[in-house]
Design brief:
Length: about 350
């Protein structure tokens, strides 16, 4: 705020004569009056500013994953810790997409993919998950993304393959979303999922498949090996698997995962579950989850309406064919602003 300089100076200048003193008193009174007016304007403006701040936050989040998936303007990004807007009967799901800090374009693309899906009766948070930043430019670019989208989780780890990123992810969640801190719902999420950045998840189908399932001691996914339909033998594929919150807490507390961190992550995950005698509830989502039809293997399936997830979308062509098949742009509203044949 620019203060009128002369007023300010007059106050501090010592008056030398009587008329100067008069002028000084008058201008002091005026100055005080001016301050009061300023303060009252500012108060009003401050309120407006607060409201404006909220609006900006709201509109920012309405473009981002969470809000868009619930289609509710109240349900903004900060709703993770506020129970007031969420319905107790809603299923709460965290989807963590494990990726690398430098995958900016992939994240922007996936924000489109998930931000345009709407789901009712569920609260789904999609977050990108990676380890410590390592480059100077990441500190700016990732921070900007967080300011804009608030959909990133940075774990305390160094990027690795087969050295425990999955462990760090699941075991960090109880602390990151500690519900005894903020008075949010307990558990913060009924289910937490780990998935790849080349997997396409259809959120509505996922929610519908989860609705009848237990919310405790559950291990859900695509059973490995590919021909197997028995979820009690091996483990779930890294294309995407989901566990109930109590299992994330168990992973945090148990010694079993801590003592078996190295190796192919999803296979090792299956060993923890086996050795800990966990997950008496298991759900094999095959063939609603599958690898993209080509190249054809024992793990692939044709695109079909009953799909929850398609994996190995390794290039744009595969994404486009998949998105086309599922009619994802069918609800584009007509407008004079554009024409898409
Ligand atoms: C979003 O909510 C509005 C108002 O509640 C409703 O009219 C609209 O159909 C909803 N859109 C979707 C995609 O569910
Ligand atoms: C919660 O959702 C259920 C089913 O969608 C609905 O019947 C119920 O009225 C909702 N409760 C509140 C408090 O919104
Ligand atoms: C990750 O970063 C944090 C904070 O900058 C640091 O304390 C921690 O040691 C780092 N962890 C690893 C594994 O490098
Ligand atoms: C959650 O917060 C409570 C209270 O601050 C603390 O006692 C507890 O250890 C925390 N739990 C985790 C998993 O960090
Ligand atoms: C996509 O739209 C077409 C034409 O309306 C319809 O025949 C087809 O069943 C839809 N596909 C899916 C997966 O919903």
């Amino acid at each position: 705020m620019l203060l009128p300089r002369s007023l300010f100076e007059m106050e501090v200048t010592k008056p030398s004569s009587k008329s100067d003193r008069r002028r000084f008193v008058l201008s002091s009174i005026f100055f005080i009056f001016f301050l009061c007016v300023l303060a009252s304007i500012n108060e009003a403006r401050f309120d407006a500013l607060l409201k404006f701040g909220r609006c900006t936050v709201d509109s920012a989040s309405s473009l981002s994953l969470q809000t868009a998936t619930f289609n509710s303007s109240d349900d903004n990004l900060l709703s993770v810790n506020s129970s007031s807007v969420s319905n107790d009967t809603d299923i709460r799901i965290l989807i963590g997409i494990l990726t690398l800090p430098d995958q900016y374009n992939r994240r922007h693309f996936l924000r489109l993919i998930y931000g345009t899906q709407s789901v009712s009766g569920a609260k789904i948070d999609v977050k990108f998950v990676f380890c410590n930043l390592t480059k100077e430019d990441q500190k700016i670019l990732v921070a900007l993304e967080i300011m804009r989208y608030d959909d990133i989780i940075i774990l305390n780890c160094r990027e690795n393959m087969n050295k425990g990123k999955t462990y760090t992810y699941f075991s960090s969640l109880p602390e990151i979303f500690n519900s005894s801190d903020g008075g949010g719902p307990n558990p913060p999420y009924h289910y937490v999922m780990k998935t790849d950045d080349d997997t396409y998840i259809r959120l509505n189908s996922l929610v519908e498949s989860l609705r009848p399932l237990p919310r405790e001691d559950l291990y859900y996914g695509y059973v490995i090996p590919c021909p197997s339909m028995d979820p009690f033998v091996k483990y779930m594929s890294g294309m995407g698997y989901l566990i109930s919150w109590d299992l994330a807490e168990w992973i945090r507390e148990s010694e079993i995962p801590k003592n078996n961190l190295e190796g192919p992550e999803d296979k090792v995950f299956g060993e923890w579950i086996r050795d800990g005698r966990r997950a008496k509830n298991r759900f094999n989502a095959k063939w609603s989850m599958y690898n993209y039809p080509e190249p054809r293997t024992g793990c692939t399936h044709e695109l079909w309406p009953e799909t929850i997830a398609v994996h190995l979308l390794k290039n744009q062509e595969k994404w486009i064919r998949t998105l086309t098949y599922f009619n994802v742009t069918a609800n584009l509203k007509p407008s004079k602003l554009y024409h898409i044949p």
